[in-house]
Amino acid sequence: MRPFQYETASLDTLFARQRIATLEEIKAALGTDVYMTVLRKLRPLGYLCSYSHGGKFYTLEKLAPFDEHGLFRVGAACFSRFGSLLNTAAHWVTGSAAGYYVAELNRELGVSTKDALRILARHRRVVREKLAGYLYCALDPQVRQAQLIQRRQPLAPAPVPGASEQLTDEAKAALLLFFSTLNEHQRRLYAGMESVRLGHGGDRWIAQLTGLDVHTVSRGRRELLAQDLALERIRCRGGGRPPVEKKRPK
């Protein structure tokens, strides 16, 4: 007698309907209680486990529109292009301009990262520095030194909400005119360069001044610090999604 064949089409139907699913929901869709059977059917489809909720939720890679930080959220369930919470936290700390305190990384990732950061430090994937609390930095000595320099800069020169008002109207107009002549990639890198120059808090100030999303400024800063310019991937004029027309309620 031939063994029973579990159909993966039922998984496509399940994920198309609700995008994420628990292990029990996947078992029900396949009609099996065997965990290894579930994994055997998920692997060819390319699956992801959430880094939140202890890996409780599953989704398919093809259904995960990751943002520019490599994150994807459905409700409270969080997924990462980098996989587990450990790998995600390590990536964020290593690529940051000024390292992360636990509370800061908690806000960015939307979960508690305290235990993950301690494990990463214990296994020497990141380094914990005593600096007004414990600051988690990159393992690479040069990157770590740059992160500590950013953190140790005096707060006085750092941008504050409303600081753009200190620029004259002529200076603002000149800056924005120059900014408008750049392509998408150049704008991101220029904004990132100004953020690096300003130091801690620069991402938000530059975003407020230029109208860019703060995450775009952060991405430009990280690309510069990592020397990852990727000039061949500049979007052509007219590329990307068409603009969405905002409709006013009648």
Describe what this molecule looks like in 3D.
This protein is mainly alpha-helical and 250 residues long. The chain folds into 3 domains: 11-80, Orthogonal Bundle (Arc Repressor Mutant, subunit A); 85-152, Arc Repressor Mutant, subunit A (Orthogonal Bundle), CATH 1.10.10; 163-233. 46% of the residues lie in helices and 11% in strands. It contains 11 helices and 7 strands. The strands form 3 sheets. Strands 1-3-2 form a 3-stranded antiparallel β-sheet. β4 and β5 (77-80) form a beta hairpin. α9 (184-198) packs across α11 and α10 (202-210) packs across α11. The longest helix has 15 residues, at 184-198. The protein is globular and about 65 Å long. The N and C termini lie far apart (67 Å).
Query: How can the largest sheet be summarized?
Result: 3 strands, antiparallel
Uncertain runs: 155-165, 232-237
Instruction: Spell out the helices and strands N to C.
Output: HEHHEEEEHHHEEHHHHH
Tell me the structural class.
mainly alpha
Q: Using only CA atoms, what is the Rg? A: 22 Å
Describe this protein with a few key phrases.
250 residues, mainly alpha, Arc Repressor Mutant, subunit A, 3 domains, two-stranded antiparallel ribbon, 11 helices, globular
Short summary of the structure?
The chain has 250 residues and is mainly alpha-helical. The protein is built from eleven helices and seven strands.
